[in-house]
Design brief:
Chains A, B: Belongs to the LDH2/MDH2 oxidoreductase family. Chains A, B: It holds the Pfam family Ldh_2. Chains A, B: It comes from Reichenbachiella ulvae. Two copies of one chain form a homodimer. Chain A is an alpha+beta fold. The first copy, chain A, is 38% helix and 16% strand. In chain A, strand 3, helix 4 and strand 4 form a beta-alpha-beta unit. In chain A, helix 2 crosses helix 4.
């Protein structure tokens, strides 16, 4: 069944208020959450609402957080999110990065004591209207084995980079540093299909096509899939995200990252506070006149769109095209919500006396 | 035959002086070039010396460059390398990034009008002794097809990130954003071996195991190899390097990047000047007290080293382990130089009256 953005946003906002957020914070959190549904990243949208509520129930979410800068220089800040929803801490931290960039050209913010922050791209895209390049990354529940390892040591640790243009569509990359995001596996699980080799390994660390391999004690594989296809590079990228997000800020890193699923307790002896994010903003006119940059980005995008394709019906895409297409389609026709998700929302609605 | 670091360094320095560099510049260029041989990245070391000389012969290298900042803010700079060797422009630009970081926490420098800058890791590692995180990237000759494309649009566009530790080995990543660097293909070509699928596509854009596929009109593949294994993520990474290095600075980007090989002329209507690099330096104490950061990095490295391995004889590595091992071995036993490379060096030596 399809719902409008406004319907889902209003429902999520009311739930966030029901667990103690004021209207401003609840609106901000719903903005981030439902942007995922609008942009076609269903795994990170309204389907996660129940998960956030569960974290609140086990007292891992503070609905009245005092989010504050605990360390700074003219171009940097470290923020203690005070156990806020990452959906709330993320935009606040990105705004600090943007404000610093206005002052000294660039701003870089590492965040500790946070939780899952929704889609990475929401935060990086905040920079676009300021004619800045936006960067956003976060660490996440350990599900990924490093090359040669069988232990889960890293999250899917996404990186998003948003780059403004003048008239062309902006460049908006938003990617997990694994071959496949966990959401893609869930699709295969529902359809009872196998996964391609290179996505998952089993409990012994051997390649498997079992789409349930991660649930059965295996691990997601870093981008590349195996050593011959350079999975060490995916491992490197996930590690950089982990270190920038958590070792710089004082959050938990690697296998210590508290899991999003509330039925697994965080490890007993944490090395930091909550999980971590990292944000950056760079004014394009800190490097060259703004118009020059934007015109050349237009030319970059136009030229890459014109790349001679292997198959003329399947043209080369610009990062962000998929999400732009989904947003256009869903703004018009509404956002489809799976029955299993509707059941969860019904349950939440009953509990907090909110109607969808 | 094996040579010492000093022998190769002295030879390279004399050649750089013979083509017009003063002693200081020639020494700096040799420092970068021969560090590649020492660290086991043979494709980027003394084997390239002849290539740099050829670029000078076709007047694409300025041996007396006026490298200068053309645009800046407290945390950023754009540098015009004045057609210097990238081996010379790179360290100068990285030093500007470090100096800015000392002032305002971080420094970010984009460079135009440059040439090939050797191994990316030389530059990022300059930050380590300052207790900073170093970042280095560069665009390069177009050899890589974007996902779904058959045209060569991007270089192997490497990214290096160096992160300091207290007592453990530092984290030093240095990776091409393709599945395999071109140097790995050259090894297979010499041994007349096939390449794994996912490294190369042929002229029609179809996957091939032909290690000569790129030379025969095909292309290198972005990290991931094919769409099912997320090659669009490698394409994204290579694109970000291209944009940060060249659209920010005013260098050539994408298919306009001037090729390193001097027998292919740069394209007739360039969109910028030379090729581009991008450097960053972040003071770790711009985010939290230095000792805290370094101790947690030690713990990060130690914990990842202890990851349960699939095969106990093949432990999980920390980025930089390979190069550290090579450097230790070659410092002791010397640097092996292939006969084909020695022939080139002999020819260069004869031309400029320099002996190896």
């Amino acid at each position: 069944m399809n719902y409008t953005y406004e319907q889902l946003h209003s429902f999520a906002k009311k739930i966030f208020m029901a667990i103690g957020h004021n209207e401003e914070l609840a609106t901000g959190a719903a903005d981030v959450l439902i942007s995922a549904d609008l942009r076609g990243v269903d795994s990170h949208g309204i389907a996660r609402l129940k998960g956030y509520v569960r974290l609140w129930e086990v007292e891992r979410i503070n609905a009245q957080p005092d989010i504050k800068i605990v360390h700074e220089t003219p171009s940097t800040a470290t923020i203690d999110a005070d156990a806020a929803l990452g959906l709330i801490a993320g935009p606040k931290a990105m705004q600090v990065a943007i404000d610093k960039a206005k002052q000294v050209g660039t701003g870089w913010v590492s965040v500790k004591n946070s939780n899952h922050y929704g889609i990475a791209g929401f935060h990086s895209m905040m920079a676009l209207e300021e004619d800045m390049i936006g960067i956003s990354m976060t660490n996440a529940s350990p599900l990924v084995a490093p090359t040669f390892g069988k232990e889960r040591m890293l999250g899917t640790n996404p990186i998003s980079v948003a780059i403004p243009t003048l008239n062309e569509t902006p460049f908006i990359a938003d990617m997990a540093t694994t071959t496949a995001a966990n959401g893609k596996l869930e699709v295969l699980q529902r359809k009872k299909l196998d996964a391609p080799l290179g996505w998952v390994q089993d409990q012994e660390g051997h390649p498997t096509t079992n789409a349930n391999g991660v649930k059965e004690g295996g691990a997601l594989l870093p981008l590349g899939g195996d050593r011959e296809h350079a999975s060490h590079k995916g491992y490197i990228l996930g590690s950089i995200v982990d270190i920038f997000s958590a070792v710089l800020s004082g959050a938990n890193y690697g296998p210590w990252v508290p899991p999003f699923v509330s039925f697994i307790d965080p490890v007993a002896n944490p090395v930091g506070e909550g999980l971590g994010h990292f944000f950056g903003a760079m004014r394009v006119d800190a490097f060259r006149p703004k118009e020059e940059f934007l015109q050349h980005m237009d030319q970059w995008v136009a030229r890459f769109r014109e790349t001679e394709a292997v198959d003329a019906d399947n043209p080369v895409q610009i990062p962000g095209d998929f999400e732009r297409g989904m947003e256009a389609e869903r703004s018009k026709n509404g956002i489809p919500v799976l029955q299993a998700v509707l059941d969860d929302l019904k349950e939440l609605g009953d509990k907090f006396e909110v109607e969808l």
